[in-house]
Fold this sequence. Notes:
The protein is α+β, with helices and mostly antiparallel strands. The chain is built from seven helices and 13 strands.
Amino acid sequence: MTPSDFRVKHRLRVRWAEVDIQKIVFNGHYLMYFDNAIADYWRALALPYELTMHQLGGDLFVKKAALEYHASAEMDDWLDVCMKCERMGNSSLTYTGAIFRGDELLVSCEMVYVYANPVLKKSQPIPTPLRDMILGFEAGQDMVQMRQGSWAELQTLAAPLRTQVFVQEQKVPQELEWDSEDATAIHVVAVNRLGTALATGRLIQHAPGVSRLGRMAVMKVMRGSDLGKRVLQTLIAAAKTRGDREILIHAQCSAQTFYAKVGFVAEGDVFDEAGIAHVPMRLSL
């Protein structure tokens, strides 16, 4: 096995608390590493795990977890924990995992999950939508659709997500979250194959040739994926298509690096908006 055999790679650095008296990673921690990679696998499928299992009416239970040790990881090693679905039965999913230090294989694993009724704990067939998504992902397909449109077209998808992120999580007052500019803005929503909205943002015509970006939100469990970047790229493309020369944004300071990576430049002083520190930024198109 090599790292290129896998689409999902969870990168981590070995911590002091994870090594034993032999100064190598304690054997049981490798199973935790693979569990973390499984969580990234569901993010790569654009499936928030708890919500998805509720939608499908089942849950996954571990049937088997077998590890084979080839070499040891040490403190401060950077590891790539890789995971792929090897095969599916009627109700079972078999995953192959591998932990690499560079190209060196340290640990391999086989993990078998059974899809079951969460109350009765009885196995049941893997739902066709889930089966199709896993097969599609392993075949290299995109798991997300970027929908662009008006507020009238996308409100039912974008509004609940913005409420969850801004009003409930960040404690932004309702009266500050909703404004008249939604009606004239270009909206983008990232939707998975079950129709769940995972990320959103909007683009306002601030002035002739100038757009203003805002209301960028990503579902908490999906952060760390590329969804925010994809929404941002779609909105930038929309501004270019409209013929705008630049895009402005009042970025939350915690997200300043995210915007800087695509070319936004900070301008002006940090200010408070809805109790959250923001900084003005600009992108020339």
